[in-house]
Amino acid sequence: MKILIAADSFKGSATTxxxxxxxxxxxxRICPEGEIAKLPMADGGEGTVETLVSGMDGELIYEEVxxxxxxxxxxxxxxxxxxxxxxxxAEASGLVLVEEEKRNPTLTTTYGTGELILSALxxxxxxxxxxxxxxxxxxxxxGMAKALGYRFLDRDGNDLAEGGGSLGQLDRVDRSxxxxxxxxxxxxxxxxxxxxxxxxxxxAFVYGPQKGADPEMVKLLDNNLSHLAExxxxxxxxxxxxxxxxxxxxxxxxxxxxxxxxxLKPGIEMVLDxxxxxxxxxxxxxxxxxxxxxxxxxxxxxxxxxVAKRAKKLNKPVVAIAGGIGxxxxxxxxxxxxxxxxxVDGPMGLGEAMTEAGGxxxxxxxxxxxxxxxxQKLK
Length: 379
Known about the structure:
Layout: E1 2-5, H1 16-30, E2 35-38, H2 48-56, E3 59-66, E4 72-80, E5 84-88, H3 89-93, H4 111-122, E6 127-131, H5 142-147, E7 151-153, E8 172-174, E9 186-191, H6 203-207, H7 215-235, H8 248-260, E10 263-266, H9 267-274, H10 277-281, E11 286-294, H11 303-313, E12 318-325, E13 339-342, H12 350-355, H13 357-378
Parallel strand pairs: 1-2, 1-11, 5-6, 6-9, 9-10, 11-12, 12-13
Antiparallel strand pairs: 3-4, 4-5, 7-8
């Protein structure tokens, strides 16, 4: 039997390749004759750079840039095929870079992400893919745009402070010093969510709390993003408020459209296309996918759903392996997933499950192999 493992990382526990290696090890323990291929997978969020670089024999470039709270951080981005740069905003502006007690989306900035984009432009790359999952920010991409030469001015002509908390003071956007390198650039945003910029499904209300926002901050940030959208419509003639995905990464999705002329596309679909996933499916008997948690949100641009939809077109059976299962999981069965297996095999807390994820993945690989053997007997 030929098996393709194309799973996302289990964030905080195992990288995408570690997940695949552990599943393979467990499966082959029971079915040593199995022929397994492994394809690193991501949806535009954390791990996208390493996934695509390893899958396409690219290389990593390291830069020291501005972190979410203004500190200097070392961040990397990938380059492949001598023409494409792949940037992951979480490297420079990610939530993992901010200690929990310091999280405050009224202050955090995407400036470092802009510095990575500028670095790629200055090195001659004109096709740039930007993955925007895992952000610590809610500044509508203002910081990113500042790094590229935009100025955000209040009524007195002063530059706004960093962070989404200052956007309400914005009076106008100055484009006079924007880098000319942007003119020839083709920037595509790999987006793992479809949230609009504003409202109950928007950047502030849905993702603000996990970034440290209390209810009052959430309302302030939503109002400020609304104000930003109005200014961008009048100053740049770009309407971003209702674009699906514009609310991703605290409005960075919309900001990249407005300031860089970027296109927003589902991250998983881009990754699958770049890695020529459909070609790899042709002679496969079984596809194994998965992620740390599978629930109703997984249908919206996450790895298991994206993999399953492609596999379903070729009538390939799909098994999804998950660290945990939440409400709404049943929706994935209609998208091409045939079986969902949780790795947890007994009562345990989240911390224990994350710590023991490697061994649990191996055991799940064993269980899956036994299911395959049973199915063969039933035939």
